[in-house]
Amino acid sequence: MKRIIVSVTNDLVTDQRVNKVCTTLMKQNFNVLLIGRKFSYSIPVKRDYSICRMRLFFNKGFLFYAEYNVRLFIKLLFIKKDILISNDLDTLPSNYLISQVFNKPLIYDSHELFTEVPELVGKPKIKKVWLSIEKIILPKLDHCYTVSHSIATHYNNIYSSNFKVIRNLPYKKNIDKGSFSFDTKNKNVILYQGAINLGRGLDLMIDTMSYLENSVFIVIGDGDIVEELKVKVSNQKLNEKVYFLGRITPEKLSQITPLADIGISLEEDLGLSYRYALPNKLFDYIRARIPVIVSDLPEMKKIINQYNVGEILTIRSAKALSKIVIDMLQKGKKHWESSLSHASDELTWQNESIKLKNIFDNFK
Q1: What value does the mean pLDDT take over residues 56-66?
Q2: Burial class of 195 by CB neighbour count within 10 A (0 to 12, 13 to 18, 19+)
Q3: Which CATH superfamily is domain 3-169+349-363 in?
Q4: Other CB atoms closer than 10 Å to residue 84's CB: what's the count?
Q5: Taking the domain 188-346, which CATH number applies?
Q6: Rg of the chain taking only CA atoms, in angstroms
Q7: Which pLDDT belongs to residue 57?
Q8: Which strand (E) or helix (H) includes residue 53?
Q9: By three-state DSSP, how is residue 3 classified?
Q10: What whole-number distance in Å separates Cα of residue 246 and Cα of residue 240?
Q11: Burial 214-229 (b: 16+ CB within 10 A, else e)
């Protein structure tokens, strides 16, 4: 049985894409080991495949990336490996070196346009380093896939590569609804789930809450601007209308999402990574049969237009967003029921994973 080593820089808990990939490969009779990180706040993770979580001295910046890749390189030196999967550019240096030293196939899974993320805006020197790594390694890779057609086209045009597209779709499965820990009776629930970072449209949605009656905005996730947003909510006296639930497990999240009336994915156009994004939360909302409001960005609006599962925000203002929200709430979830049902049947990991299986059939 061939052994696949999968590496990521997160702590595995909420990375649904990597879990789905690993589970699919395990069912293809590969021996899978997933390597990630462990923080002081990390919760236990139990998977059907093997996992390894490294506790690092540094958790951000150059020293983190350097330590991670050195530690990963050393670990990969001394364990059995037949195939390597590198998730995103920050795991690629060590994987590429090992693949060259041991002549092992390397597959690259790009979750985003790493060098175009908003966090690198205004940091040209750091961005230049990552671009240099990308330019050196990517043209030499034969097996790559990513999350959207726009990102695949971008890479293929620049590096004459052959990126395939494997979208981050959810499993089709029956979901038992959970409950919130606070009273939402007679309240409309607007939901955001995902990373709480710059450019996610969360500040815009908070501003919009002042225009909405009998509604609450629930934010699930963690990130760099959580405390900043909490201060904003407090300053605007919206504490009874905006709730931060923090990080929760994917299993619990799947029970909470269907309780919402609207899901939002309002990423700003802060560089190509967000412009070409196709967030997994969009598909999680669809699976939960709740209509969605998305930004006027190519990949997201393509889904809305193709499946008629929500609305597109073309004017980024609180008043414009409030009008869309009010109109959608007046129509009610039943307005999109048929479209959401059709979309949720098509947009599943069971369908999408066929492309992944075809890639790895070549390595059996």
Answers
A1: 90
A2: middle
A3: Glycogen Phosphorylase B; (3.40.50.2000)
A4: 23
A5: 3.40.50.2000
A6: 21
A7: 93
A8: strand 50-54
A9: strand
A10: 17
A11: ebbbbbbbbeebbeeb
- Give the separation between CA 20 and CA 229, rounded to whole angstroms: 31
Q: Give the bridge partners for 108, in sequence order.
A: 86, 144
Q: How confident is the model at residue 335 (pLDDT cuts 50, 70, 90)?
A: very high
Using DSSP bridges, classify how beta strands 292-295 and 106-110 pair: parallel, antiparallel or unpaired.
Answer: unpaired
- CA torsion through residues 179, 184, 186, 187, sign: negative
Q: Is the fold of 3-169+349-363 the same as that of 188-346?
A: yes
Q: Domain coordinates of the chain in residue numbers?
A: 3-169+349-363, 188-346
Give mean pLDDT, residues 154-166. 95
For the entire predicted model, the pTM comes to 0.91
Residue 203 makes CB contacts below 8 A (sequence gap 6+) with 229, 232
Judged against a pLDDT cut of 80, whether residue 121 lies above it is answered with no
Q: What is the pLDDT of residues 131-152, one digit of tens each?
A: 999 999 999 999 999 999 999 9
* Per-position DSSP letters for 85-110, written without gaps between them: EEESGGGHHHHHHHHHHHT--EEEEE
Cα 25 to the center of its chain, rounded Å: 20
Q: Both tokens of residue 114?
A: 């790493």
Torsion of CA 13, 14, 16, 22, to 10 degrees: -20
- What is the structure's pLDDT at 122? 78
What CA–CA distance (Å, rounded) separates 348 from 280? Answer: 11
Residues 7-41 have pLDDT tens digits of: 999 999 888 899 999 999 999 999 999 999 998 88
Percent of residues, the chain, with pLDDT higher than 90: 84
Q: How far apart are CA 95 and CA 87, in angstroms?
A: 10
Only one residue has tokens 């700003």, namely 268
> What tokens were used for 140?
């030499």
Residue among 307, 256, 272 nearest 286 (CA): 307
Q: Which tens digit of pLDDT belongs to each residue from 263-315?
A: 999 999 988 999 999 999 999 999 999 999 999 999 999 999 999 999 999 99
- Measured CA to CA, the distance from residue 1 to residue 299 in angstroms comes to 38
Strand order in the sheet with 262-265: 242-246, 215-220, 188-193, 262-265, 292-295, 310-313
Residue type, 181: S
Closest C-alpha among 161, 153, 90 to residue 119: 90
